[in-house]
Each structure stands twice: as structure tokens, then as C-alpha cells.
Amino acid sequence: MTGLSTHVLDATSGSPAVGVEVSLQDASGTELSSGRTDSDGRIGQVNDEPLVPGIYHLVFDTGNWFADNDVKGFYPEVDICFEVDDPDGHYHVPVLLSPFAYSTYRGS
Questions:
Q1: Domain of life, per the record (predicted)?
Q2: How many whole angstroms separate alpha carbon 16 and alpha carbon 43?
């Protein structure tokens, strides 16, 4: 599988973060695609077009997700900047989210 996927987990409850809006942007901030996490907190294929080597941003609308879930959060948005170096590779960018912290890593 090639392309880009993501997964958001609510680290406070240990549950998938359902309904988080996610935007894929290029280095200049142009939106390339967008989606919303499903019932498992995932977007299996973020991009419609192949990713060429370069810098990209996955921007998670955490502010609205926190508000929709009656949680006072500190981060209104999480912007994960990453680099694609293999256009034939698969990139998985998960986020572990809580009201006052988040973490990410390159998944598989």
C-alpha cells in the first residue's frame, strides 16, 4: 500500500478519536485533501493523488473535536510536519491526543 494514513487515539479515555477533521497541506499551506476520522479514529487513505517527495503538513482540528466532546483542551490544532522521501512508500502518521499533550510517531 502506498500513500498516507492517520489514526487519532484519545489517550485520556483510550478510545478512538471519532470525527476529528484532518487536512493534508503542502509546504506552502495549500490544502491537498481533507477528511474526518472514522469510528476507529482512522483515515485509511488521506490523499487521493500520489505524494511526491517533499514537505507536508497534517493539520488536526483538535479544538472543534474537544469542544464537541465537552473537553477543555489547550491545543486548538495539531500540525504535524513531515517529509516524504519515497513516492512509492506508505506513510502512517498516528496521533495520541489528550487535552494538554499530544505525541506522534511514524507508524507502519
A1: Bacteria
A2: 12
